[in-house]
């Protein structure tokens, strides 16, 4: 599959795969962003992409940024009809200021095929062994 990518700013860095066979495509910050402790901020990439119909771009954490810096991605669904800039919203879950420098990897996107579903209202749905069990329903807390 080929994904068309457009630089919205000359100094934007094109998304890349970190290693051959990696599922995620890395996106890079177009400018320095400072995250105050416990606060969220937007990270601009300067990139627009054309996701094929019947596909979605799912934004996920970079493990090193999540594990080491405490930055978590929010709002990570990019529909195929969207043609604007890819902007990552991240939350600093740590108690320290975190700085992402221009050109640093900030998040990754996985392009995934999906099934479009028809919503049908019913009076009953089928029962399962789990039923309405939520957190801890497997006995692990």
Automatic annotation (TrEMBL):
<dbReference type="InterPro" id="IPR008181">
    <property type="entry name" value="dUTPase"/>
</dbReference>
<feature type="domain" description="dUTPase-like">
    <location>
        <begin position="11"/>
        <end position="139"/>
    </location>
</feature>
<dbReference type="GO" id="GO:0000287">
    <property type="term" value="F:magnesium ion binding"/>
</dbReference>
<dbReference type="InterPro" id="IPR029054">
    <property type="entry name" value="dUTPase-like"/>
</dbReference>
<protein>
    <recommendedName>
        <fullName>dUTP diphosphatase</fullName>
        <ecNumber>3.6.1.23</ecNumber>
    </recommendedName>
</protein>
<dbReference type="Pfam" id="PF00692">
    <property type="entry name" value="dUTPase"/>
</dbReference>
<dbReference type="GO" id="GO:0006226">
    <property type="term" value="P:dUMP biosynthetic process"/>
</dbReference>
<dbReference type="GO" id="GO:0046081">
    <property type="term" value="P:dUTP catabolic process"/>
</dbReference>
<dbReference type="InterPro" id="IPR033704">
    <property type="entry name" value="dUTPase_trimeric"/>
</dbReference>
<dbReference type="InterPro" id="IPR036157">
    <property type="entry name" value="dUTPase-like_sf"/>
</dbReference>
<keyword id="KW-0378">Hydrolase</keyword>
<dbReference type="GO" id="GO:0004170">
    <property type="term" value="F:dUTP diphosphatase activity"/>
</dbReference>
<keyword id="KW-0546">Nucleotide metabolism</keyword>
<comment type="similarity">
    <text>Belongs to the dUTPase family.</text>
</comment>
């Amino acid at each position: 599959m080929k994904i068309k990518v457009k630089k919205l700013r000359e100094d934007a860095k094109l998304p890349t795969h970190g290693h051959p066979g990696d599922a995620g495509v890395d996106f890079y910050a177009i400018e320095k962003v400072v995250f105050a402790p416990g606060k969220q901020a937007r990270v601009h990439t300067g990139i627009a992409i054309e996701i094929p119909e019947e596909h979605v771009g799912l934004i996920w954490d970079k493990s090193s940024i999540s594990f080491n810096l405490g930055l978590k991605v929010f709002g990570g669904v990019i529909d195929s009809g969207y043609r604007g800039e890819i902007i990552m919203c991240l939350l600093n879950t740590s108690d320290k200021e975190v700085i992402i420098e221009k050109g640093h990897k900030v998040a990754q996107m996985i392009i995934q095929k999906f099934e479009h579903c028809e919503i049908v209202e019913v009076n009953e749905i089928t029962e399962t062994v789990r039923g309405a069990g939520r957190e801890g329903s497997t006995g692990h807390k």
